[in-house]
Amino acid sequence: MAMHALHKIMAAKSGQTAVAPGDIVTCAVDVAGINDIYLMVVHAFRAMGGKRVMRPERVAIFMDHNAPSPSVQGAENQKAFREFAARYGIGHVFEINEGICHQLLPEAGLVKPGDIVVITDSHTTTHGAFGAFGTGVGSTDMAVILLEGSLWLRAPEIVNVKLAGKLRPGVMAKDAALFILGKLGTDFANYKAIEFSGAIVRALPAEERMVLCNMAVEMGAKTTYIAPDDTTIAYLRQYSDKPFAIPATDADFVYEKIYEFDLSGLEPQVALPASVDNVKPVKEALGTPIDQVFIGSCTGGKFTDIEAAAKYLRGKKVARGTRLVVTMASKATLGKAIAAGHYQTLLAAGAAITVPGCAACYGGHSGLLGAGERCATTSNRNFPGRMGDESSALYLVSPLTAAATAVAGKLTHPDYE
How do residues 95-139 score in pLDDT, each as one tens digit? Predict the structure, then answer.
C-alpha cells in the first residue's frame, strides 16, 4: 500500500506496518507540550488518578501566553505548573522570558522529522515545517498523554497545496497563506493534512515555511507537512546534532486532492475583519486608518519577520497617532535582533518592544485594543474580541505590510506608498 510520510510516521509510532486514511491508531507521542493557560490539564490528570507522568523527559511546559503574568490568576497557574513539573520530574520548563512554544521547540532541539508533536495549542500544525506530525489537543487528551505517553489519532486524508512560481519582492509567506485562505476558505481541509509543496515552498527559508504550516489550522487542517530538505536540516542543525531519519512519501501515493497556484504575480494580501478568509489585496483597502500595528506571535515574531520589518523601518518613524508594538517569538530571536541591530532600529522608529511570548496575539496583555480601534497585525486570527474590545478590528498582514502601515498610519504596503 502506497503511504504518505505522515502515515508512515503514525505507523512507526503505533507499531503498525501500514496506516491508511481513516484508520484509528494509538501513537507514542515524542513531544507533549502544555501552555501556561491550560492548568485544566493538571486538574484532569489528578481527576484520572494520575500518580506519575509516563515519560517526563518528553513533556514541556511553556510560560508563554502570560509572560510575565498580567494577573494574579495567571501567576497562580504558573506557580502550580512549576510545582507540578518539580513533583513529576519534568525538566523542560520554559520560563516567562523565553518565548512561544512553537519557536522554542526547534530552538531547544526538541523537534525533528518523524516526530509526533502534541501541544495544547491549535497552531501546533507549525511543526509540519520540520517534517513532524504536529497537532493541537485539549486538556483531557493531554492528561491522557501524561498518563500513558500516547494518544489515539485518526489518520487524516492528505491534500497537496502546490505553490508554483516565484514570490515578488515585498511578498512574504503570510501573503501566500492569506491568498490560499481567500481562495479555498476556512474548512476545505477539515481534519485533513495539508502538504505544502512546489517551487515557492522550496525557496522559502525554514521560518517562512513555519508560517504556511501555522496558518493551515485556519484552513481546518489537523496537521501539515513539508518534505524535509537541506533547508530544514540546516535550520534544525543550528540547535541539535541528534540523528534523525526522514520518512518519504511513496511515489505512487494518491492525494485526496491537489490544489495548484502560480503565485508569481501575487500582491501583498490582507484579511479584513472579522474572518481569516475575508482576504483582499492590500491595494483594495489602502488608506484604512490604523491605530496600532502589532508585529509578533508564532506567525509573525520570528527572526525573519523582525528582520523584514526592521529593514523597512530603518531611518523611518512610526506615524503620529499610530503605535507599534513588537513582541518577538523567543529570547534567541531577541538576541539575534540585538546583534543584527534590528532591535535598535525598531526602538529608534518608535516601537514598544515587549517580553518574548504570545502577549497581545491571544488577547492576554501587552497591547490590547480599546473600543473601535483598528490594528494591523502579523498574528494568525482576526475574530471579534481576539485582541481586546469586541468592537475593535483586526487586519491580518505580513511583517512588511505591517511595517509600512506603521509608518503611514494607515493600511499600505511598500509597493503602494
Answer: 999 999 999 999 999 999 999 999 999 999 999 999 999 999 999
Q: Indicate the residue type of 342.
A: H
Amino acid identity of residue 265, one-letter, is G
Distance CA 316, CA 406 (A): 10
Q: What is the pLDDT of residues 202-213, one digit of tens each?
A: 999 999 999 999
Which superfamily, per CATH, for 5-260?
A: Aconitase, domain 3 (3.30.499.10)
User: 3-class SS at 362?
Assistant: helix
> Could you report the per-residue pLDDT of 186-199, keeping only the tens digit for each?
999 999 999 999 99
Q: Which CATH class is domain 271-416?
A: alpha beta
Residue type present at position 175: D
263 HSE (CA, 13 A, CB side): 32
Distances (CA, A) of 201 to 112, 131, 205, 299: 19, 13, 8, 16
Strand order in the sheet with 351-353: 279-281, 269-271, 393-396, 374-377, 292-296, 323-327, 351-353
**Is residue 196 within 8 Å of residue 163, measured between CB atoms?**
yes
342-349 and 331-340 helices, crossing angle to 10°? 80
Do the two domains 5-260 and 271-416 of this chain adopt the same fold?
yes
**CA-based angle 23:254:189, to the nearest 5?**
65
Parse the chain into domains and list their residue ranges.
Answer: 5-260, 271-416
How does DSSP assign 33-68, residue by residue?
Answer: EEETT-THHHHHHHHTT--S-S-GGGEEEE--SSSS
Distance CA 188, CA 219 (A): 6
Kindly calculate the radius of gyration of the chain based on its CA atoms and give it in whole angstroms.
21
* H/E segment holding residue 120: none
Tell whether the model's pLDDT for residue 233 goes beyond 90.
yes
